[in-house]
Amino acid sequence: MAKENIPVYDICSISREPGANDDFLADRLSSYLHKYYDHLHFPHRHSFYHLLLFTRGKGTHSIDFTTFDVKPYQIYFMIPGQVHSWHFDNNMAGFIINFSENFFKSFLQNPHYMDRFPFFSGISEEGVYQLPVDLHKQTAQLLESILTYSGHDWKSHTDMVRVLLLQLFLLIDHSLAANSNKAIPQQKLILLRGFRRLIDTHYRSIRLPKEYADLLYVTPNHLNALCQDLLGKTAGELIRERVLLEAKRLLTNARMTVTEIAYDLNFQDNSYFNRFFKKYSGMTPDEFRKQFHTENK
Predict the structure, then answer these.
(1) Higher-confidence residue: 123 or 254?
(2) What's the mean pLDDT in 282-295?
(3) What are phi and psi of 105, to 5 degrees?
(4) What pLDDT digit, counting tens, does each position of 108-155 carry?
(5) What are the extents of the domains in the chain?
(6) Distance (Å, rounded) from C-alpha 160 to C-alpha 171?
(7) Going edge to edge, which strands form the sheet with 59-63?
(8) Three-state DSSP class for 270?
(9) Disulfide engineering: 66 pairs with which of 18, 34, 124, 209, CB 3.0-4.6 Å?
(10) Which pTM does this prediction carry?
(11) Which CATH number does 8-178 carry?
């Protein structure tokens, strides 16, 4: 397979500073942009989790081909692998946090702990949250504390940074739940998260809701009703959306042909892939690719 054209950054490759921590980075947004904006405003991926809070400024932020207008006290959460880019003015302020998949594993002894938070679902719209006014000060204070502890004697304060970051996640999670129109039983959330995790693992080889239902030990009707109830979509739609998203990500790679992408995604032939892509995106793969590269020159 051809190498991916869109850059993938880890924490060390972004910081490029001697002795940089490969599991965690915290910075003020203005400082971060001053150091790295020249290459990070182009579409790229991360190998780490990414948190971005704006407290001042204007511009746009695109995550997996969905563009959001930046607003003060808007917070963004991204998981490894998502494609994003930003275009900001010169008066930005806020905070940025990067942490690896390993950052919490030894601390929590739970490899799927991040899955409990809806904003780390990997769905662009679910990872963007406008903070209510009563959370502005508390959120900023938590991030200020993280900056303080991460900036001095890192080894002695690593656990404090983890606790503060978890406190932030739990605070946002509670706010989301409190502002939701309905309370969702934990059992349903666990099942939905399990389904999404399976899709992320198997979307290339498993396309039928029945096969996922078997893996989850539920009936296809139960799985479909769960998705309709919580998301207003069918189980089949979630699977197709994940395949379409990966197709779009791969199409950003100018070195891969459409035929290679169709093969990578396990389509029977190129024409079937073209029909699938046009049906669910409204344009052909070649049209999408041309539009993407025109917009990101």
Answers:
(1) 123
(2) 91
(3) -60, -50
(4) 887 778 888 999 999 999 999 999 999 999 999 999 999 999 987 788
(5) 8-178, 186-295
(6) 16
(7) 8-9, 44-46, 83-88, 59-63, 66-69
(8) helix
(9) 124
(10) 0.86
(11) 2.60.120.280
